[in-house]
Amino acid sequence: MTGVQKGLEWDPGGRNGGEVEVRKVVKAKLVGLTHIKRRILDHEYEGLQRFLRGDPGVELYSANKQQAKRFYRRVKPEREYPLSIRKDLIRVERRDTKIARYWARIPVKLRRGGVWVAIKPHCEITSDLEVCESKLLRRGGEYFLHLTVKREVELRTSYSSVLAIDMGIRHVACSVDTRSGKTHFYGRELRRVRGHYFHLRRKLGRKKLLKVVKRIGAKESR
């Protein structure tokens, strides 16, 4: 059983069942980049884009070329593709420096042994996590690492309590805790907002203010 979700919290142990491998993606922003490191990353990242568009002579780290051939067989000209990094070539360390708590090594053509960059992940990267194949992305001029990590956990087959959730129309959700027996109904505020806009549209419609009704649109859906 494998789960890959942003911000997935893992259970540190189970009561019954064997061990299973679970995965998640840790999203991390590259911070404190020097001009030299940014230039090195730009060279590798932009080299990947040119390689995918048919430039065989571009300077690109050999393993990154292999990954590109493996994953990107169909390329859209208008799209920018992330750099796929093999698990044996990426390394993440905790250093607790002034810039960042975590650092990552990215394999590149212009620096032997790769370039070390400071990263700010959205959650802790503990020592029991194994970093797998990951991706380097560029958005709005900033770089981000999507680190795929995995660990072994025990599979639970029984629980002391269950939280049951029922989705409905009048009540958007209703939850019941089987341990305490408490029931919670959700949706009162949503019904109030919907009712407000319903009466507002009807009032404006009677006054023939159709342009105002159109401008309001479906604001309550936000």
Task: Provide keyphrases for this structure.
222 residues, 2 domains, disordered N terminus, alpha+beta
Textual characterization of the structure:
This protein has about 220 residues and is an alpha+beta fold. It folds into 2 domains: about 20-155, no CATH class; about 165-215, no CATH class. Helices cover about 25% and strands about 30% of the residues. It has helices at about 35-50, 60-70, 190-205, 210-215; strands spanning about 20-30, 85, 90-95, 100-105, 115-120, 130, 135-140, 140-155, 165, 175, 185. The strands form 2 sheets. Strands 1, 2, 3, 4, 5, 6, 7 and 8 form an 8-stranded antiparallel β-sheet that branches. A 3-stranded antiparallel β-sheet has the order 9-10-11, with no helix packed on it. The radius of gyration is 25 Å and the shape is extended.
| Ends distance | 35 Å
Major sheet attributes: 8 strands, antiparallel
Question: Which stretches are poorly predicted, pLDDT < 50 over at least 5 residues?
Answer: 1-16
Mean pLDDT equals 83
Helix and strand pattern: EHHEEEEEEEEEEHH
Portion in beta strands: 25-35%
